[in-house]
Design a protein that fits this description.
alpha/beta, Rossmann fold, 9 strands, globular
């Protein structure tokens, strides 16, 4: 049993100290929305044994933490505001990003998982070229972004409640599936596309976002990555965890109602794509 496993399960070897469960994982266990996100990403993951992998934008570190438990050798990267939080949870191999540039050698990774990052940077085409550069031949990228679906009934409500793109650090509201296909298409072969987080999940997120804004639950700092909640915020306001614990059964029940909406598209978009053998040559 490795260190990450002991921290997650509470298990420990004879004579060793039991390590506390990371604060972000404790919150994860009370968040049906984060659980839904990780399950969606997990379903798109190929076998990771012996692979060198990168996650970008790992949700304050909890998704980075969970991905590392799936196998492979992982690096994590995010905008500077989130790096400290990720590093405190996963430890080593955490890198700072500035916009689209990736600080890694050519053909270094087998898998790259991009989680809620592309909507935070202006130069998304340059970022896609960087993904192509750092992936090995045959490598795959998994991209998670907000779904800018037409007729999204909750979007005007969220905007009226102050849950704007600017507050979340978004430079664009998200992508439609065809937009993301066109963006990836010159350099990647799209293998699978899905959406998740249907109406009831997004409604729960809207309510929690509004409560956070009105009451300052969990404190947090507004940055270009949205609201960053750190370990200090968590420890300062343990009531947030108690509140989430009380509401967790209700939220879990509400999210189950999404099954009735199987014919609708979700508010989050997930794409899995493979690197093409060669980049297209520029037209003369």
């Amino acid at each position: 049993m490795n260190v990450l496993e002991r921290r997650e399960t509470g298990g420990h070897r004879p004579g060793s100290r039991e390590l506390p469960l990371p604060w972000a994982v404790r919150l994860y266990r009370r968040s049906v929305l984060k659980q839904e996100k990780f399950r969606a990403i997990e379903r798109f993951l190929p076998p990771l044994e012996g692979k060198t992998c990168l996650d970008i934008g790992g949700d304050n570190g909890v998704i980075s933490y969970l991905l590392r438990k799936k196998g492979g050798t992982w690096h994590s990267a995010d905008l500077p505001e989130a790096v400290e939080s990720i590093r405190k949870i996963v430890g080593e191999n955490v890198h700072r990003l500035l916009g689209p540039k990736l600080p890694f050698p050519d053909e270094h990774f087998d898998i790259v998982v991009v989680i809620d990052y592309m909507e935070h940077i202006l130069e998304d085409r340059a970022f896609v070229r960087e993904l192509f550069r750092v992936l090995r031949t045959g490598g795959e990228v998994i991209v998670n972004v907000p779904h800018a679906k037409p007729g999204a009934v909750l979007r005007p409500i969220r905007l009226a409640l102050g849950l704007t793109d600017e507050r979340h650090g978004h430079v664009r509201p998200g992508y439609r599936a065809q937009e993301l296909r066109r963006l990836l298409g010159p350099l990647f072969t799209v293998k699978a596309v899905t959406t998740y987080s249907r109406f009831f999940s997004h409604a729960v997120d809207t309510v929690f976002g509004f409560i956070h804004g009105r009451l300052g639950a969990g404190q947090g700092k507004e940055t270009s990555k949205g609201i960053i909640v750190t370990q200090k915020d968590f420890e300062r306001d343990i009531k947030s965890l108690l509140f989430a614990s009380l509401l967790y059964p209700v939220c879990k029940l509400l999210v189950q109602l999404n099954r009735l909406l199987f014919f609708t598209k979700g508010y989050l978009l997930l794409v899995r794509a493979g690197k093409k053998a060669e980049a297209p040559q520029p037209k003369p």
